[in-house]
Amino acid sequence: MKTEKFIGYSFIFGAFGVLVPYTMLTIIFNYPNILREETGTILTEFHKGGNRLIWTWWAFAILGLPLLPAYVLLGQKLEQKYSFVRWATVLGVVGLLVQMLGLLRWTFVVPVLSHSFVSGDEMTKAASKVAFQVIHQYGGVVLGEHIGQLFTIVWTIKIAYAFAQFKIFPQWTSWMAYTGALIYLQAQTELFATVIPEFPVISWAGFAGSTIWIAWLIIIGILFLNKKLE
């Protein structure tokens, strides 16, 4: 298989690997709205989800893995012409990995806490809530949503710029990437609001930005299937 086709399929499969379990989580766990609920409610609802919910979170963390070789191979194709692509690729790969690590807390840490919360006494319940808040704030907010998403946004903008300069794809694809990335960036307001309550929040930015980003990955993947990079 030609490298370009492999990159294309990897983008497509990786994007759907993120989209499908995410959609399932919105249905069976009311994600991400559930995260705005009280900690005890989150742990109780997670426990109700059982093994199906645990496996869905695992899928959400893992099935985006095809994006990793896509990032690396694309970087290798473009970095000789545009030197900034190399460090953009590094940021993109790191961004994907830290998001994966952050998401895996829902598979290997939260089930333990939710069980302790549901079955424990009042002291255990209180300890479980505090533990969840700490792990969620670090694994979710710091690693996954702050560092992971910021690095992904930078990668998207830089790669879209390289596409535009190299005239690889129609210009509108780069503008789609810029738009999605800038909207996605506004989702960082929710993260700062977790520690600065009066910080203004743009609540729709996370969903809108990530949706545009996933759609862009799929479009780029399809275009790569019939593209030859020199």
Descriptive report:
The chain has one domain. The protein has helices spanning 3-28, 39-62, 67-78, 84-103, 105-108, 110-119, 122-166, 171-186, 188-193, 205-224. The protein is mostly helical.
How many domains? The number is: 1
Which structural class matches the secondary elements?
A: mainly alpha
Mass-distribution shape: elongated
For the sheet with most strands, the description reads: none
Q: How much strand content do the residues show?
A: under 5%
Mean pLDDT: 96
Distance between the ends: 16 Å
Count every beta strand, where a strand is a DSSP E run of 2 or more residues. Answer: 0
List keywords for this structure.
single chain, elongated, 80% helix, 230 residues, mainly alpha
Please specify the SSE layout and strand pairing.
Elements: H1 3-28, H2 39-62, H3 67-78, H4 84-103, H5 105-108, H6 110-119, H7 122-166, H8 171-186, H9 188-193, H10 205-224
Helix pairs in contact: 1-2, 1-3, 1-10, 2-4, 2-6, 3-4, 4-7, 6-7, 7-8, 8-10
